[in-house]
Amino acid sequence: ATPGTYHVVATSNSDPTKTATATVTVVALPTITSFTALPTTINRGATSTLTAAFPAGITGSINNGIGAVSSGSGVSTPALTATTIYTLTVTNAAGATLPGTLTVTVNPVAVSVSPTPVTLSVSTNQTFTATVTGAVDTSVAWSVLEGASGGSVTAGGVYTASATPGTYHVVATSNSDPTKTATATVTVVALPTITS
To answer: How confident is the model at residue 148 (pLDDT cuts 50, 70, 90)?
Structure first.
């Protein structure tokens, strides 16, 4: 039960002067002192630093593409797009292993757009602003849900209203997570006229 070097001896019963000895090195079971992530919660596209601590004479490895690690030395994760569980496996000289896990949480991406709703005269302009949270990349792609018939919008969020009155929708789509969008509703009305 105590680590050290020991010797197993085989002695001949026929001739007790004849022996053979096997040398045995007994090592402690592997242990994990600590396994941490800093930070534990990140925005989409960010990285976290993983640090493992374990006793001397033990080797460590982290899954998900990290590989072998040294005790006390931080290693960076790749840029993460989803919450990821990392497993640290420590191994002693006898091949015994012990796993430890931690989770790096990735914030959900959210998009908002303002102003909304908006009422515009035909063929006039309105600048929209998009706000992206939960991502390192806060840029968006702009589009009009109704396509060319609904007007046009520039990369800067400047919308030119359709020449046809109606209800249209300006859409901001996160470049970091294209499944996340926000929509501004635009009511386009005819210019005023005087009949007589």
So the answer is: very high
